[in-house]
């Protein structure tokens, strides 16, 4: 039987305190009825003795402490799931927002999920093609991996996120592929961009979209990524689908976490973020992976905007510890007009070696990747030297590397947001660029591969 409590002890937006409670549990759902009959939903954030602290999803403005009635519902926040979620749009709390009919739910799942037993994890080793050369060839995404994108304010991470959502696929697989897209604390204009792009390109037909707007209560942002990951886990591990989860922007999520922490008067950590920020982010990122006994998988691409382009900021810093690499957007490349402005040198995919090679991509993938990395790095060094001493200080080989660097950025990196390149396309462009260099400089590629893919006289 549900118990009703009259009156609140304290209200500190978005938190309310209720005394005289019994048997209340952490994460339990709560209904707070105002004097005019309006119901606001909340969740137990802390329960100790006869006192419960409740965080409200709609905020606490207008609440009269004396008249309010509180009902504890005895269950956590859940998401109704069904295969019919694909092609639908939801708000940050999992409510349908596309004007379509209600779902006929197959089941209702706790959005907090459960940690994957490490013993039951399968190692990620299958190539995911995004259609973007700088990722597929040089920083390969593998099924079951978590590979964040580090961006900066004003950089085109939303265009990159939409491009990946449109183009991503798992090669040589018969299982269905789906994208779960979670937009966290974005503006109305950004939301319209994603909605229009997904609708016009048809990407919505294989996507489940959750959108939390910047003017929604901050507390809802803490639920949005959990909603998305719950939907992804259902499709992956119960419907055996390959699911790619794109979450943008995790900085908005962390800022909401800081806001709630400040309201609870917790001792702040680095830059005001709570000391448990690492643990909290890990509970989200570690929900990616593959499980023995299931052909499905959850692959994550969280997008993090770095305040003041500072990669040592707590959010990207901790994200880098938890995840398996990073894709970094460059403001310098963006100012040059490159699309997408991915800087491949500091970018990294720690699992790329497991998803490439003969039978997965192509036999020349690893060696051309290493050669291109080396050549581009030497080209950037030559450019720095030339800016100080002039081109006359460069050797003939340095000038070739300089030419390679410029051609690499213009022909390889600058592919645009609506060009979908297969891995074969990316490899062929790589070989074309390597022709700029003397054959004696191709020290990271075997003679057999050079003769096969770049024969003399052709």
UniProtKB/TrEMBL annotation:
<dbReference type="GO" id="GO:0016787">
    <property type="term" value="F:hydrolase activity"/>
</dbReference>
<dbReference type="Pfam" id="PF00006">
    <property type="entry name" value="ATP-synt_ab"/>
</dbReference>
<feature type="domain" description="ATP synthase A/B type C-terminal">
    <location>
        <begin position="355"/>
        <end position="453"/>
    </location>
</feature>
<dbReference type="InterPro" id="IPR004100">
    <property type="entry name" value="ATPase_F1/V1/A1_a/bsu_N"/>
</dbReference>
<keyword id="KW-0375">Hydrogen ion transport</keyword>
<keyword id="KW-0066">ATP synthesis</keyword>
<dbReference type="InterPro" id="IPR000194">
    <property type="entry name" value="ATPase_F1/V1/A1_a/bsu_nucl-bd"/>
</dbReference>
<comment type="similarity">
    <text>Belongs to the ATPase alpha/beta chains family.</text>
</comment>
<feature type="domain" description="ATPase F1/V1/A1 complex alpha/beta subunit N-terminal">
    <location>
        <begin position="10"/>
        <end position="74"/>
    </location>
</feature>
<dbReference type="GO" id="GO:0046933">
    <property type="term" value="F:proton-transporting ATP synthase activity, rotational mechanism"/>
</dbReference>
<feature type="domain" description="ATPase F1/V1/A1 complex alpha/beta subunit nucleotide-binding">
    <location>
        <begin position="131"/>
        <end position="349"/>
    </location>
</feature>
<protein>
    <recommendedName>
        <fullName>V-type ATP synthase beta chain</fullName>
    </recommendedName>
</protein>
<dbReference type="Pfam" id="PF22919">
    <property type="entry name" value="ATP-synt_VA_C"/>
</dbReference>
<dbReference type="GO" id="GO:0042777">
    <property type="term" value="P:proton motive force-driven plasma membrane ATP synthesis"/>
</dbReference>
<dbReference type="GO" id="GO:0005524">
    <property type="term" value="F:ATP binding"/>
</dbReference>
<comment type="function">
    <text>Produces ATP from ADP in the presence of a proton gradient across the membrane. The V-type beta chain is a regulatory subunit.</text>
</comment>
<dbReference type="InterPro" id="IPR022879">
    <property type="entry name" value="V-ATPase_su_B/beta"/>
</dbReference>
<dbReference type="InterPro" id="IPR027417">
    <property type="entry name" value="P-loop_NTPase"/>
</dbReference>
<keyword id="KW-0813">Transport</keyword>
<dbReference type="InterPro" id="IPR055190">
    <property type="entry name" value="ATP-synt_VA_C"/>
</dbReference>
<keyword id="KW-0406">Ion transport</keyword>
<dbReference type="Pfam" id="PF02874">
    <property type="entry name" value="ATP-synt_ab_N"/>
</dbReference>
<dbReference type="InterPro" id="IPR020003">
    <property type="entry name" value="ATPase_a/bsu_AS"/>
</dbReference>
<keyword id="KW-0378">Hydrolase</keyword>
